[in-house]
Specification:
Elements: E1 3-9, E2 17-22, E3 27-30, H1 33-48, E4 58-66, E5 69-74, H2 88-95, H3 97-108, E6 114-117, H4 125-128, E7 136-142, E8 148-154, E9 166-168, H5 171-174, H6 178-184, E10 190-193
Parallel strand pairs: 1-4, 5-6, 6-7, 8-10, 9-10
Antiparallel strand pairs: 1-2, 2-3, 4-5, 7-8
Length: 202
């Protein structure tokens, strides 16, 4: 199972890049991506007690503040709507008032929601494996008709998990396509139980 690392870009902070690894729990910061990557890999190498050349596969994500929302995407990914050839982020920012309202609602309740861009055919495991137990993420993808479908995933220790239905993170859920999940849980979301730990013992 791959390690995921999320690089958060916040130009008003110092350092401007913060990173955290899942499930390793590696965390730190730097002012350039090269420095952040090097620092992260040094931490991961120490956590796993292996040489840096023997590190497991790592999936990188970048997130930044866009239109008042934290938005995350896999490094190098391009998300487009197939019917209009518009960028998914463009559609999300101009048309998705429901999603933006949910981001605002969760923030008012004390969460730090993050919109994660995905493809409809991604397995849900690609989202679950980048979550910590306290996360609240809004999974968004093109619906193929010029709009965006979305739903919410809460970690089992999310501050806003109360009164939200739970699902077990079993193999059936992990292999479910993102589009199938968002259709079944449109807007409402669910708490993902039995989330794997966000830390590796040192």
């Amino acid at each position: 199972m791959a390690e995921h690392v999320i690089f958060r870009y916040a130009p008003d902070h110092q350092p401007v890049l913060a990173f955290r690894g899942v499930p390793s729990g590696c965390a730190g910061g730097a002012n350039t991506m090269a420095e952040a990557r090097a620092s992260y890999r040094t931490c991961l190498s120490a956590r796993l007690h292996v040489d840096r050349r023997a590190l497991p596969p790592v999936v990188e994500h970048i997130e930044g503040l866009v239109g008042g929302m934290w938005v995350r995407t896999k490094v190098g990914a391009v998300h487009r709507d197939t019917s209009s050839d518009r960028m998914l982020l463009q559609i999300l920012l101009t048309e998705q008032t429901g999603l933006r309202d949910e981001v605002a609602r969760l923030a008012e309740l004390g969460a730090e929601p993050v919109v994660v861009l995905a493809e409809p055919d991604y397995a849900l495991a690609t989202l679950l494996d980048q979550m910590s137990v306290r996360d609240s993420i809004l999974v968004a993808h093109s619906d193929g008709n010029g709009s965006v479908d979305w739903s919410v995933l809460f970690g089992p220790e999310s501050s806003v998990r109360q009164s939200v239905p739970s699902v077990a993170a079993d193999e059936t859920l992990r292999t479910t396509p993102v589009a199938t999940f968002t259709r079944a849980h449109s807007g409402a979301g669910c708490v993902v139980q039995h989330q794997r730990t966000a830390h590796i013992a040192s």
